[in-house]
Amino acid sequence: MHDLSPWLPRLYERYGKDAVDVQLAALERHGSVIDDPRLWLEVALARRFKFVPIARVDRCPCGSAHTTLLNRFVFWNLLGLRECNRCGLLFVSPRLTEEAMHSVFAEHYFDYADLKVWGERREKVFAGVLEILCSRGVHKVFDVGAAFGHFVRYAKDRGLEAAGSDLSAKAVEVGREQLGVDLHSGSISELDLPDASVDAVVSLDAFYYVADPRAELDAMRRLVKSSGVIVLRLRNALLSRVLARAPRYRKVNRPAMPAEHLWGFTPQSISRLLEGSGWTVEGCQPADYSMSAFAPLQSAAITLNRLARRGWRGAPILTRSFNVVARRVG
User: Fold this and answer.
1) Could you list the residue range(s) of the whole structural domain that residue 11 is in?
2) Are residues 205 and 63 in the same domain?
3) pLDDT tens sequence across 234-288
4) Closest C-alpha to 286, from 78, 45, 63, 125
5) pTM of the prediction?
6) Are 303 and 274 within one domain?
């Protein structure tokens, strides 16, 4: 660990000895996860961190250990945004540990006050995904990261057999009670679900929170039948890659992508990951948003972007979110 003694008198004077000693103890607990102790200590004191454990991710899911640090930002702790030099995937390292992420989501992410609003604002998303499923003859679907189970309810109301899972035990309990849906609590890779039991797996705005994307895709692959389908709705990290290189985003406190996300996927990086995990990608397309203040203009832009993709598959997806559809190999 770096010698911090030359800076301690100034920090003691500015923040007080007790506050500095608390963060020094936290710094020692973090150990080798912290690559710049001086910077971490200064940010921790300025932001008055409470101890939240973090972990370092040494490899991209593609297997490469060659990455570049693009950005540092604060989300309960001082975290970093890295880019894989091989496949271009953005990912957070260091990041909150899996247990810390579960705690943050259980306490701060879900709005239990009005489930009706939570579901209604997502109906355009659900309709688009259901269209994809029905066009491929899907009768039984499993939603990973289902939250309260609104998509499960939506799909069941339209004739599909549907169930889902979520990491939040409380969200699962509320969904079971208030929506009457079949939900499981926990990670899909840990649940005892029957192999080859569904036609399709979906994950809507949830896949970038998972701790291990490759393990998650392997579990999804086991769950679907031969030639089964996966549909992922993802936030497009194309703009994040540009922002992360901008000078103002090199300063601490400005995350280049949503602070709680662990992975920043582009159509290219998620396609590579899927192809390397036993899936054949059928396509990526701009996705409808659930909320927008510019709905008419946005709808036209999405339509034009989709038409461009049909004419040239290499055309970039310019929308904030996109859907990727893939089929199980074997």
Assistant:
1) 1-51
2) no
3) 999 988 888 888 777 667 878 889 999 999 999 999 999 999 999 999 999 988 7
4) 125
5) 0.88
6) yes
